Structures are given as C-alpha cells and as structure tokens.
Amino acid sequence: MDVLDVNTTRTRLLALSQLEEHLSFRVSRLSKLMDNHSAKNIRHPQLNLTDYRILLVLDLFHETSAADLSRIMVIDRAQISRSVAALRTGAFLEERTDPKNKRRKLLRLSAKGTDALSGEQPFFSARQAEFEDLLSPDELAGLTAAIDKLSRHLAQELGEPQAIPASEQQKP
C-alpha cells in the first residue's frame, strides 16, 4: 500500500469514527445490517421481510386490522396495505369483516401463512440464539433496557403510544 492509500484510509477511518459518534447513525446501520441479514435468509420465494414480520405479528396477535399492523410495526400504512394485498393474493392471510365495525377488516393467518411462518422460524430462532450467545447476560440486559428506553422516549415524542415497548408501558 502506498502513502496515498494509507492517508486515504486514515481519512476515511477518521470520518467514519466521527459518524459513529452519532448514536442514530450506529443504530440505523445496525438496523440495516439486521434487515439485510434477515432478507437474505428468508426462504419462501413469495415473502419479503415486511411480509414475514406481518405474519409474525398476526401469529402473536391472532387477528388484527391493517391499520393496527401499521401502528404496532410503526410502518407506513401504504406499505402495510401493499404487503397485506400481496399476502392475501398469495393466500397467506384471511380477511373477515369485524362484527363490531362493518367497515373494519380483520386479518389472520391462513394455513398457508402458518406453514410459511413455520418454515422461517428455524433461521430466526437460531439467529436469536446466536445474538444471545454473542452478548453476555449483562450486555443483553443493558442493550434491551437502552433500546426500550430510547423507544419509549421517541414514541412519546412522536405521539405514538402504541410503539412504547411493553416493558416500558407502566413507567411514568
């Protein structure tokens, strides 16, 4: 490596270290890395990462509306609408009218959606275990607490109480 390359590398490392002083940059980069890693490992050819997350939320909530999915996942309603339409077309979701509100449509997993989600679970379970192995119990607890605290703060600032983590719901 010649002197010019060394200086260029040093300049780039200095700039990167200055960027990394910004917590939002570091968190955003980590989020993108995690998303890219997830997307690369989605096995079902008809699913993308947002689709997988919708299936996961519906598996846990059993039934909810697209508007509720948007609020829970903090994803733009238009993106949720497009994903839900594709999932319905692909027969991953079933829809019914809410008996309490005839204008509201409730979504739930179909058998195909449950099967697709089950097919993705081994990767995501293994990845969760890998992350937990990478961090000590204290690091994991600290990271979780920090993420929850920042999420609560931003959810309150943005007036999105549904985005406050469950662990932070009861705190003043």
TrEMBL record:
Sorted alphabetically, the keyword list is: DNA-binding, Transcription, Transcription regulation
MF terms (GO), sorted A to Z = DNA binding; DNA-binding transcription factor activity
Q: Give start and end of each HTH marR-type domain.
A: 20-152
InterPro entries reported in the protein's UniProt record: HTH_MarR-typ, Metal_resp_HTH_trans_reg, WH-like_DNA-bd_sf, WH_DNA-bd_sf
Q: Which SUPFAM superfamilies does this chain map to?
A: Winged helix' DNA-binding domain (SSF46785)
Q: Which PROSITE patterns match?
A: HTH_MARR_2
Please indicate if the UniProt record lists Transcription regulation as a keyword: yes
Question: Could you identify this protein by its name?
Answer: Winged helix DNA-binding protein
Organism expressing this protein natively: Tritonibacter litoralis
